[in-house]
Structure formats: C-alpha cells, structure tokens
Records
---
Amino acid sequence: MLVMKFGGSSVANRAQIEKVLGIVAGRASRRPVVVSSAHKGVTDALVSAAKVAAAGTYEPEAVIGRQLSIARELGCPDALLEPLFAELRDLLRGVHLVRELSPRSLDYISSFGERMSVRCIADYFTREGTPATAYDVWDLGFITDSKFGHARPTVGFAERARAAYAALPLDCIPVVTGFIGKNERGEITTVGRNGSDLTATLLGAALDAEEVEIWSDTDGVMTADPRIVATARNIPYMRFDEAAELAYFGSRVLHPSTLLPAMECRIPVRVLNTNRPAHPGTVIQEVTPPNPNPVTSIAYTENQSVLTIGSTRMFGEVGFVGEVFAACARHGVVVDMVTTSEVSISLTAQGNAALGLAAEELRSLGTVSVRTGRTVLVVVGQHLATRAGIAAEILRAVAEQGVNVEMIGYAAGSINLSMVIVDADVARAVDVLHRTLFD
Ligand code: ASP
Ligand code: MG
C-alpha cells in the first residue's frame, strides 16, 4: 500500500481537488491511503477565530463561510458539515465566554480544518466515481499523548493502525485527517503546525507502506530556494541524512521531524508536485545512486542570533561548556551551531525571549554578547568530508562577493558545512554558491 499526503495548497479549492482526484485515481491499484491537510488558509482562520474569541469577539462565521464556499464549489450537500459547524460555534462561544484559550482548546479548534476537508474530499471523490470514505485519524488507531500542540502517538499505535486498516473495505479509498489526534481521554490533540506530513510518515511506517508520497506545490526538493536562484533545479534523489539537514535548515519543503518515522522503517519518501504530476519530484531514501554533483543542496535559515560567551575561567577548566548548555536548556533555547575556542564559546539559536533570558543568566559566567539578524547557511552533500578543497572553494566563493563569514561549522565526516553571515548577505551568498557548485 501507498500513503499519499496532500498539503493545504493541493486541496485549496475545487480546481486543485480535481487534480488530486486524478492523481489518486491513477494509483488506485496500489491501495492508497490519502492523508489530507485542511484547505489552504483554513487552519490559520481557525486559530485566529480562537484568538479573537478569547480576546472578546465571537466571530465564527468568517471561517465557516470560507469552508462552506469550498464545500458548495465541490457540490457537497450543506448537511455534510452542519454538525461540525454547530460544534465549532459552540466551542468558540465557550472560549468567548470564559475569555481563555488553553493549548487544549486551541488544538480542539484547530482540528476542524482537517475534519472538514476530508469529509468534503471523500464526498466529492465518491460522487465523481471514485468511492472514498473520510476518517478521523483516531479511527485508524492514532491515539496520542496529551502534549497539546506537539502530541505523538502512544505505544501500540502500529498494532492499532494495522488492525484498523485490515478492517477497512477494499473497494473504497480512505481519506484521512492529517495533523490531529486524540488522547486516551478522548480530547483532541495536534502534532504541531504543518504536521500533516508527519501524520503521513507515521501512518506509512505503521502500515509498512511501500512509499510515502508528499504532494505539494514544488517539483520536489530543489538545489536552492527558487525565489533567490533562478537556475535552482530539482534534486532527483537524496539520502535521509541529507534531507534531514535540509529540512532543518529551512528548505521549506519538509517539516523537520517528518522523515524520522520513514527513516527508522526505511520507507522511501517521495516529494511531488500536484500541479505537475508527471514530474518525478525527489525521492528520499536510505541508499541512493552516486550523486554526480559535489554537493546536494544549499539551504538557510534567517533571523538567527549568535551568542558568544568569553571567559578566562574556561581555560583548562572542567565543566564550563556543560554549564553554558545547562543554562540554555533551562530557558528552552534550541542551540543549532556551536564553536569553541580556549576562552570563548559561540552558539546560534533563534533570536527570541528565551535566548535573552539565557544570556542574562550566562553573564555570571563571563562576558556575553548577542548579535542578531544572522543567517545560518548550510551546504549539504555526501562528498563534503571527503573531497579535498571543497570547503576552500565554498569559502572563497562567498569571500569574493565580499560576504563576511562570522562562524563556521564543519565536523568530522559531516555532510554539511554551515556558516553564519548577516541576513542582508543571504541572496548574494546563495546565488554565488549555486553558480560555483551547480552551474
Ligand atoms: N493544517 C495544518 C496547518 O496548517 C497542518 C498542515 O497543513 O500540515 O498547520
Ligand atoms: Mg500546510
């Protein structure tokens, strides 16, 4: 069997859902399980309705009207979603009355996007001659812990999913909610924003799928951000470890944690374009044919901060680095890059309030400075650690553009070279690196 996940833009409206139907019907013999996001923009609209309710304005009709117009465009009967609309109005009324929005209520409200979209899609598929049934993913055993906003399935999920799947009728395509789940008490949870990809790989792993397809609106994973590099091109295949580096550093195609379940079960993940279904996209798997390019891709994440702590106490001392990281951990700072010298440590993290608090605490250990507006740029490729001169080539290329590199990470045997530059230099650096390494 095959898991096919469609993102919000793939199911944005009737024109897109027609394409989805064509793609799914073409794979009917492979027993697809379809996982769908909410229609584009609906989750955002639900979150905003929840927030304005908590702030004193009861305004459920904007998001309901939006959903209803997509349902009507698809020819679905109004009665299909009436029970969900009624539930959503009640819920928003409740939040409005108590003026309080807990993570639990926010997950509950956010869940309506997927619950509504799968019902419309299955109804439309069936009327168009491809019998389909909508499922809330908990009907396939997706019972989670109670970490609202980042819930994960509990032990036994794979067994529950397999038992539920075995009982499904063979002649009907299941269309399943991404993003959401339910805890043992029956309270609705979510796996986190943009989490439908993760639902798809978790289901694929549990059901031992031959492949997980992630359908979105780009031709797979690209060698660089196509908005910056006009000559960016598709990467036909890449290894899980390469894809994981890219997802993490913001290539914006895959959610970082998405690949883990597929990686553990060695299930290939294929990234495809709903608008160009004949394009082969990118397949991510454990073993790939050798890549003729010296590198695989260039990615970056902007708006980072660099924290540097200098102290002569560090020199020859035991445990100093540990103290620095313990302070970061206490404030929930997620550290990305790290470099150390005899008397200083620099680390990068998202520039947020948590980092400010950690910096305050670290002042008791030494002199602390925080530089903001920085970008972590990474070049990813299997040959980075083995090909002589490639790091020099990368650094020379950016230097010749007058881009100053403030920090470098290049570990033993690593498949990525990371550098910190100022945000304003990103386009120049990415462009020259792409020209040097790909063109
Ligand atoms: N609908 C959810 C969101 O917008 C999940 C997803 O699209 O993957 O975050
Ligand atoms: Mg999305």
---
Amino acid sequence: MAPRPHYPDTVHYRGLNRPTHIEATAHDLYVEGEIPRDIDGAFFRAVHDPAYVPMRDDDVVLSRDGMIGKVEFRDGRVNCAIRYVQTERFLAEQKAGRGLFGRYRNPFTDDPSVAGVDRTVANTTPYYHAGRLFMSKEDGLPYRVDPTSLKTLGRWNYGGTLRSLTLTAHPKIDPDTGELFLFGYEADGLASPTIAYCIISPQGELVSEQWFDAPYCAMMHDFAITKDHAIFTVYPTKADLLRLKEGGPHWIHDPEGESFIGIMPRHGEVTEMVWFKGPPGVHSYHVMNAWSEGSKVHLDQCMASTNLIPFIASDSGIAGPPQGGLTRWTMDLADPGAGITERPLGPFGEMPLIAHADTGKDYRRGWYLTVDPARMTHLANGPGDFAFNLLVRVGFPDGALSFYGEGAGYSFNEPVLVPAVDPDHGGWLLMMVDRVIAPGYIAQEVWILDADDIERGPVAKVEMPFRTCGQVHGTWVPRHLLDQARGD
Ligand code: V55
Ligand code: FE
C-alpha cells in the first residue's frame, strides 16, 4: 500500500508500515478453531506507528512512535486493544501537531523547540516485572504502562535511584529467582562507551548498578544471562559524537572492526569481566539463550556477517546480502586465550525465542523466523522490503530442525510462547500474521500453533478487527501475573 499523503514515499511508510493512527479496543473477536485451555493471559506487542508526519524524509521505522498492543485470552474468548505510549516526545509533537524530531538517534538534527525533551519512542519491547508493565527502547528509559487500560504511567527510573540514562529493550528475568537483569549502553550520554549493569529484585527495586566501559561504543542490542553469568556482546556497529554533531548517522558498521564477548559472574563485580575476542565485522541483534557447563559458557545467537538493518548497512556503504545463521559460541572461562569455538545450529534468521522457564539453562527447544527464499513476501514490514514467512523450530541436544511456512503474501511476526500445563509439552506459539488480501489491503490474524508440532500449522486463528502497523517484539503475561499488577 502506498504511504499516506504527506508521509515520506519510502519503505519506512509503505505496506504494513503505512501509518494507521488507530487507538482502539474490540471485544469477542472471531475465532476459527478451538483455543487451547492453557492460553489464559495477555499477549502484549510493541508496534511502531507515527502519530505525525516526520520532519525529515529520511526518517526510519525505528524512530516511529511506540504503541502498546494487547490481545487478551480468557475462557476461549479474545479481546484486543492498542494505544500510543505517551512519551515526552509524543506529547511534544501532539502539542505542536507536527513532527519535531530529526534523524534517528541524532538530537543535533531536532527542531530547536524540543531541545532537552526525551527523544525515546518506547517502541521495541514490552516486558512485565514485579507487577509492572513497561515499554522499552534502548536509547532511553522504559515507560510504564497500565496493563488493563494501556494508559501510560510515565517514564520509569526506579524512584530516581537509577543513574543510567538508558536501559536495554532486551532485559532478562531469571525464571526461578524472579530477579530482573538489565544493562544500558551510552549510559552517561551519546556515543559514550559506558555501560550500566543493573539488577532489580523480584520485588521490583534496584539493588545494584555498576558501570564499566565497553571496548568502544557499540550498538549493544541484546545480552544474555546464565544461572551464574552476565554476558555482554560488542559487535562493530559504532557511534561517533563528531559525526552526530555534523548531522550524520548514529551508527556505522565497521566490517573490519573487532568483536568481543564479556562474561562476568552475574552477582559479581564488573571488574571481574573476562573479555573474549570474536571474529571481525560480524553482528548479531538477538540472543536465543545462554547457559554454562563447568567452566564453559554457551551463547546461542542469530549471527550475521554484517548489520542486518538495511539503512544502517547503506549508511555504512555495505552492499550485498548478509550471511549467517543460528550459531552457538562456546567460551571457556578457564582458558580465555583459547578464544571462541563456533557451532552452526540452524539457517539464517532472526527473532529467536524460548520458553521463559528455560532462560539461562540448558534447553530443549527454541524457535525463530526466517524467509523462504523461493517464496519471498515483498511487504514492507519493519526496516526492509521483505517479511519473514517461515517459522523454524530447533530441538536440542540433537539440533533437529522443523519448519512451517506460508508463501508470498504472508508475513510472520515474532511469536510468544505460552507454556502448557503438561510439563512434557512445549506449549503454544501465538504469532501475529499479516496477510495481503488484495493489492494494498492487509488483514491480521493471531495464529496459534503447537510449539512441538509446528509443521501441522495453526490449530486456531483469531481475526483482528483492525490493522496495526508492524510489530517489533512481544511478550506473554499469564493470568496469575496479570492479577498481581500493582498500582505503585
Ligand atoms: C532494533 C529495533 C529498534 C532499535 C534498534 O531490532 C534496534 C532492532 C525498534 O527499534 O531502535
Ligand atoms: Fe530486539
């Protein structure tokens, strides 16, 4: 679908990226098939949908206003809702009735009237901890959102105790202890190599914040924990303050740049960090999981030969299709000089997920998304002119792969996993599917798949009554945790 009038005529505004401006609720959605009884709770989604025409024509999907979407399941019935996150930036633009912010993550290009206004758009990941729901983006602090009304409750800084200016959109919650592990990069300002490493108690209080310097300022999108370690990944997508002051891009990927993995005891001191050197030029957006075996630490990631986001590759002068795959890196803390051992696990892809209960442990199953190259879906969904249309399941320890795909015209978004009551069953995947129904018209459905038998295809589908823009990440919050939502 063409962009709406006055929006830039680029991939960032076409197709599923065509802005909707819809805030809505709907009840008792139409369901095809039977919803498994295990599914009781809320599927929260981060959606990017700009409320105003941007100041610049080179604006990108990653800068668009965050919306919090919810698809709630109870007794086989389904409701849905979506609302803007009312960030400082959203409110400033709403007041002016127009876009006021410039280039992606470059405040030097903003309208002077918004100098000092928080630029984050909270559009990347919803997460729920200690009875509080957050919407996050890595360039700022999360915003708290009411899980029932989806009303924005304000920026969250742990009662003023947090010093970091940023927090990752990929926090990790220990499934057994309930602790939340976080980090922020550019913790003390633009293009700074300073990292803040933070632990939040199961009750939701900041218990530690330690700062350290990464080897250089890198786009550290994700990280990992094991039961004993915190793992930081540094890949050579780099920022530079002078470039920002000149109005340039925040990120340039350096194909020759060194990569590093830093591992420390997760309850230890940052001075205990052990750095391992990785191959030059590589990049990974997302971690599937990590765990340790004696002195060895395994890290499973969606590895790529370069930065996958097309506008970052283009700003970096990088052309040609990226390569890579789901990859296990193994590091031996007893012998850091031996470097990293690499084992391929699966084809090129992204958006990995596991059962929450498996976080930081040896695990039996993971899932991610890829593209069926023979049946490409050319539908702008996110920063590129393509969409994922093939779901992959990887079984461990044997590494068995299985697939479920649809052809051209279908777009798969990152699923969430709903655990089953039966401990031997891998649970259910809930996945928003965008489907081109006529030129320029897209329908959306939540598909429910048996996580251990994806090849069978969806066991049920929930029809969405209105279209949203593309999803970034999602999270599942089971009913018993929703019931513990707190007001403070
Ligand atoms: C990503 C997404 C972002 C971002 C940086 O998936 C990296 C990667 C939706 O925003 O700002
Ligand atoms: Fe991400």
